[in-house]
Amino acid sequence: MAEKSYSDEKFWDKLMKYGKKIGEQTVYSSLLLFYTAKNPAVPKSTKMIIIGALSYLVLPVDLIPDFVPVVGLADDASVIAAAVYKVVSHIDDGVKEQAKNRTKKLFGL
Questions:
Q1: Number of structural domains found in the chain
Q2: What is the pLDDT of residue 1?
Q3: Which has the closest alpha carbon to 76: 21, 36, 39, 32?
Q4: How far is Cα 95 from Cα 56, in angstroms, rounded to an integer?
Q5: Total-model pTM
Q6: Using one digit for the tens of pLDDT, what is the confidence trace for 46-84?
Q7: Do 18 and 66 form a contact (C-beta atoms < 8 A)?
Q8: 25: which residues sit within 8 A by CB, 6+ positions away?
Q9: Taking Cα atoms as reference points, which of 58, 61, 62, 65 lies closest to residue 19?
Q10: What value does the mean pLDDT of the chain take?
């Protein structure tokens, strides 16, 4: 289900639409997951955790709808943070640099 719900296009659409609302840290964490999943050396089981978290982020239906002020995006941020915690051993310096640079670009820093 998660693999069918997720797409790179949906991911980038969500970041562009809600990036400033979900905050720089959640965007950075989402990008850490995104770039880690692209690494062919990362095990499939780890990629499934990442795809699940990013799918939750992009799905229009989740526990608390995104349009609910403040808390609507908090559940998304929590899922992303939990996924980063689970896969942190697979996040290398190159991924961190890519995520940092893209976050800066998205936030105009």
A1: 1
A2: 40
A3: 21
A4: 21
A5: 0.83
A6: 999 999 999 888 876 655 555 555 566 677 888 999 999
A7: yes
A8: 77
A9: 58
A10: 85
Q: Which of 16-25, 68-77, 81-90 has the lowest mean pLDDT?
A: 68-77
Q: How far apart, in Å, do the first and last CA atoms of the chain sit?
A: 36
Q: Which residues contact 89 (CB under 8 A, 6 or more apart)?
A: none
* The one-letter amino acid at 78: S
Report the alpha-carbon distance of residue 108 to residue 101 in Å, rounded.
Answer: 10
Q: Which domain holds residue 103?
A: 2-107
Nearest-5° angle of CA 108, CA 25, CA 39? 90
Give the Cβ contact number of residue 17 at 10 Å.
11
